Amino acid sequence: MRDYTAQPVPRSVWEKPSHFIAFGFGSGAVPFAPGTFGTLMAIPFYLLMRPLSLSMYLFLVILITIASMWLCDKVSKEIKVHDHSGMCLDEIVGFLVTMIGAPHGVIWILLGFALFRLFDIWKPWPIRYLDEQVKGGVGVILDDVVAGIFSFIVLQLLTWL
Q: What is the pLDDT of residues 125-151, one digit of tens each?
């Protein structure tokens, strides 16, 4: 589980591109609610990917997920903090998972955002278990992917109503 006590943002976030990316393109440096700001940072990436075919979107989400696991593992080791609270590339990945096949429109983006933040903060089983037990870059990203899957399921159910 993340240590939510005040963790200073490493200076390297502004000096090393890999750290900047792992810290949600700088959004994780916000001194409060870095996960929320990291999820907000995901919206422009989603909008850039939205016009893609579903298969290309899925391919990119899988590629981004794998690359994020590797990058977060590398950065965690370099800053010597596992899953730093400001390292919010995982929120970007989780939101992109949430929005797989989502209908067009601002309302769906807002619902996806709210659902993802709900599951990411609440951490029902197995999300909390993954957050606490899986280490390394896989652990940093995997709980947010599962939160994204939960959010995706609810969002898709809402499209049927």
A: 999 999 999 999 999 999 999 999 999
